[in-house]
Amino acid sequence: MGVDLGDLLKKKPVELSDLSSKVIAIDAYNTLYQFLSIIRQRDGTPLKDSKGNVTSHLSGLLYRMSSLMEAGIKPVFVFDGKPPEMKSSTIEKRVEARENAKIKWTQAQEAGLAEEAYKYAQASSRVDATIVEDSRKLLDAMGIPFVDAPSEGEAQAAYMVSRGDADYTGSQDYDSLLFGAPRVVRNLTVSGKRKVPRKNLYVDVKPEIMQLEETLNGLGISREQLIDIALCVGTDYNPGLANIGPKKALKLVKEHGGIKEVLARTGNEIPGLADIKEFFMNPPVTKDYALRWKKPKTDSVLQLLCDEHDFSRERVTKALEKLEASSGAGQRTLDSWF
């Protein structure tokens, strides 16, 4: 998902303690996909309750967010609104890819290929209306604010950071930088140990931050040129140019000045180029939001998770205690947030 510019960007690993007292505007859909992809049983099956409802996302929200808040981090979730029409092709391809992954998951299971099955199971993850609704209910019960974006959640989150209402955008994708987010943190919801595909090897995954100004200065380009590079590589709104990766795109944009000149020299075209660039430079956002963290509604959390979705009452209670406890010297208790 999003544009692949990782090879060009400078990332600085940090500890959760470095983010204490920081407000992080989290791309909700991106994070829910992460939870649905990662929080699974060994055969790839997502966590489910006794009625067959998927609960991986609820588990991720409860346990990961309680740990982040215990560390002094103040999360706010930003939900996507209506996607732009120029994203329709990408959305269709993603739906098709998930359906194909679901078929391959079943085939791999039948063939006894456990690792292949798990990989395809992850790729089949899908965020539907029920998952979004339950996620919003849980966030509200946990006292975590959320914002509804008019369009792309990452664009709204980037605006909130630019405005000073948040300190970082939280997302695995790099699009936040294209939308002008001054600071981005990755791996916020997926840190820990991660298995290297096809190898019996695990690596540590820590949060890492990226700063837009530092990135642009290091590459010797402007934000508009960073968008031009992304357009060469391919974004959610265009397929990109053939055989051009991030490094070659950087070279072309710096050599010729911008995307129009690159297209003229290479004999390529990008349909809707002006509209795509305008969308990145000035995306639709809303100023109509208020961020307030509230004390968790214990009864509501227990009702939703334990009574409706069969979570362990003991484990949920411990997570709720985390939300209300201070996280140690130099870090604020929740009471100081309200």
UniProtKB/TrEMBL annotation:
Interacts with PCNA. PCNA stimulates the nuclease activity without altering cleavage specificity. Mg(2+) 2 binds at D173, D175, D236. Binds 2 magnesium ions per subunit. They probably participate in the reaction catalyzed by the enzyme. May bind an additional third magnesium ion after substrate binding. InterPro entries: 5-3_exonuclease_C_sf, Flap_endonuc, Flap_endonuc_arc, HhH2, PIN-like_dom_sf, XPG-I_dom, XPG/Rad2, XPG_CS. Mg(2+) 1 binds at D27, D80, E152, E154. Residues 1-101 form the XPG N-terminal domain. The gene is fen. Residues 140-221 form the XPG-I domain. Its cofactor is Mg(2+). Its EC number is 3.1.-.-. The lineage of its organism: Archaea, Methanobacteriati, Methanobacteriota, Stenosarchaea group, Methanomicrobia. It comes from Methanolobus chelungpuianus. Belongs to the XPG/RAD2 endonuclease family. FEN1 subfamily. It comes from the Archaea. SMART domains: HhH2, XPGI, XPGN. Residues 330-338 are annotated as: Interaction with PCNA. Residues 1-98 are annotated as: N-domain. Structure-specific nuclease with 5'-flap endonuclease and 5'-3' exonuclease activities involved in DNA replication and repair. During DNA replication, cleaves the 5'-overhanging flap structure that is generated by displacement synthesis when DNA polymerase encounters the 5'-end of a downstream Okazaki fragment. Binds the unpaired 3'-DNA end and kinks the DNA to facilitate 5' cleavage specificity. Cleaves one nucleotide into the double-stranded DNA from the junction in flap DNA, leaving a nick for ligation. Also involved in the base excision repair (BER) pathway. The keyword Signal does not apply. GO terms for biological process: DNA repair; DNA replication, removal of RNA primer. This is Flap endonuclease 1.
